[in-house]
Amino acid sequence: MSKKVRRIGVMTSGGDSPGMNAAIRAVVRTCAYYHTDCVGFYRGFQGMINGEYISMNARSVRNIVNQGGTILQSARSKEFLTKEGRAKAAKNLKDAEVDAMILIGGDGTFRGGQVFSQEHGIPVIGVPGTIDNDIYGTHYTIGYDTALNTVVEAIDKIRDTASSHNRLFFVEVMGRDAGFIALNSGIGAGAEEILIPEEDLGLERLLDSLERSRRAGKTSSIVVVSEGDKIGKNVFELAEYVKQNLPYYDARVTVLGHIQRGGRPSCFDRVLASRLSVKAVELLLDGQKDLMVGMMNNEMESCSLDQALKGKHNINKDLLRISEILST
Ligand code: F6P
């Protein structure tokens, strides 16, 4: 029988995402609701290694549901990749009498959590928080919706200046190796072309499409480029290549960068973070371990960390077809 969980630790790790604070708040308040102690570790796995934590109660998380970033801060810890680092973290958890951990982050966080749990027998539950939406076992990750809205708002502004100057804009968006942000923001912002890692359209197709746009009477265009796009050129080289081949285009590049990770979380992300985190605490109190919580078809679900790590969350390729139809 698994040991009764009396004290739960929570941390945020990897790239921060809007809604992580709503998740922390929900973990802490759910613990309070079930009369379970809660401690927050700073800077993800690094804080577990360094023994940097605070005791949290319902009042520690007041007024954070609407804040971007993470009050517990985040990091990508190299030391936790080592056996020694993980052993230090396990000792600190034992000393602090922490029985189980809730890890809010992306696939790197879950990979670390899975090894840690296997080595030290400390139950963990993963809560998917990343703007990239690239996690299997959930249709949405915390922060993705807010990032999409940030990108769409930025591209709307770029469109104003693009049309005023008859320009072609290449807008690079985040997503590491996944095209979710590019694809959905591209459709939302009415982009002429969307380049994502999952589908290599090829340079020739891009030139043809831009040429067609011009012939169809378009005087300005937006191309959304995912940072992980595999077209073989970075966004600046791509713009240069297009300028050389289609000299009538006055091309510019905007890299949206880290503004996509900040800002007030959307209502969708706050609710998602709240639902996932309540579920995560309840699973631990129910004696479950090594799972990731997710939202599938608007229902709270869970899958093993192993499944979450081995599975692939695929983009909906029909969206590419829709984008093509709508950019005629
Ligand atoms: O995983 C989230 C993410 O924002 C990716 O979209 C991006 O590639 C990466 O993190 C950037 O990481 P960093 O903030 O360490 O540069």
From TrEMBL:
Source taxonomy: Bacteria, Pseudomonadati, Bacteroidota, Flavobacteriia, Flavobacteriales
Family statement drawn from the similarity comment of this UniProt entry: Belongs to the phosphofructokinase type A (PFKA) family. ATP-dependent PFK group I subfamily. Prokaryotic clade 'B1' sub-subfamily.
Pathway as given in its UniProt record: Carbohydrate degradation; glycolysis; D-glyceraldehyde 3-phosphate and glycerone phosphate from D-glucose: step 3/4
Protein name per Swiss-Prot or TrEMBL: ATP-dependent 6-phosphofructokinase
Described purpose of this protein according to its UniProt entry: Catalyzes the phosphorylation of D-fructose 6-phosphate to fructose 1,6-bisphosphate by ATP, the first committing step of glycolysis.
Residues given in the record as substrate binding sites: 130-132, 167, 174-176, 227, 252, 258-261
Family annotation (Pfam families): PFK
Subcellular location: Cytoplasm
Keyword Kinase set for record: yes
Cofactor requirements of the protein: Mg(2+)
